[in-house]
Structures are given as structure tokens and as C-alpha cells.
């Protein structure tokens, strides 16, 4: 989790903020995000392959924006996703592995 936290602080914090709360209407929250938990596979692919571009609805609020490709390796994507999925009140009962990230992103 420490490596995931470090990656989050380096790449995600500037937009999603220190507690994953985001900025309403601009950067969606990652803390207690219904979108994230309904779209885990798509979120992993987005983090690995180029972010998200276009409108999404998170916790009933519309976010228009673009998330850039951070250039993370699969192990880094796994680490940061595990950190996000288990921080700020989030509780995901599975572990995202480097192999799973590779499997998902090779399909796209």
C-alpha cells in the first residue's frame, strides 16, 4: 500500500486531492466513488492506457474532463489502484495484480 500511496501522491493527488475528494464538476472523487466501483476494469484500463476523455457521472454528479495518460507500468497501476480502492472509506475485497492489469490492457 505504501508504494501505491507514493504513486498516488506523485501522479493523482494534484487533481483528486489528498483524501480522494476531487473537485466538484472538474475532477471526480475517488473516495466512495460509485463510478469507480461499478467500472473497476474500465478504470484500470484508463489509468494504464491513456486516461478518461468525456463525460462521466460520479455519485450523481456530471464530470466533464480529460484524464491524461500517466505512463505507469502495470505494477504501478496495480499498486495505485489497490491504494485507491482501499483508502478514504473505500473497501475492495480483491487485490489487483500486475498480471490482471496486463490481461485487461492486452485486450484493448
What is the total number of structural domains?
Answer: 1
What is the arithmetic mean of pLDDT?
93
Major β-sheet strand ordering: 1-2
Which descriptor suits the 3D outline? Answer: globular
> Uncertain spans, ≥5 residues at pLDDT below 50?
none
**What would CATH call the class?**
Mainly Alpha
Q: What would CATH call the homologous superfamily?
A: Cytochrome c-like domain
Helix content, binned percent:
40-55%
- Structure summary, number of beta strands: 2
Compute the CA-based radius of gyration: 13 Å
Helix tally?
A: 6
Structure description:
- 46% of the residues lie in helices and 11% in strands.
- It has a single domain (2-106), classed as Orthogonal Bundle (Cytochrome Bc1 Complex, Chain D, domain 2).
- It has six helices and two strands, in the order ααααββαα.
- The model has no long low-confidence stretch (mean pLDDT 93).
- It is mainly alpha-helical and 108 residues long.
Question: Topology, pairings included?
Answer:
Layout (H helix, E strand, L loop, with lengths): L1 H10 L1 H4 L17 H5 L1 H10 L3 E6 L2 E6 L7 H12 L12 H9 L2
Helix pairs in contact: 1-5, 5-6
Q: Any descriptors?
A:
108 residues, mainly alpha, Cytochrome Bc1 Complex, Chain D, domain 2, globular
Q: Could you write a compact summary of the structure shown?
A:
The chain has 108 residues and is mainly alpha-helical. It is built from six helices and two strands; from the N terminus they run H-H-H-H-E-E-H-H.
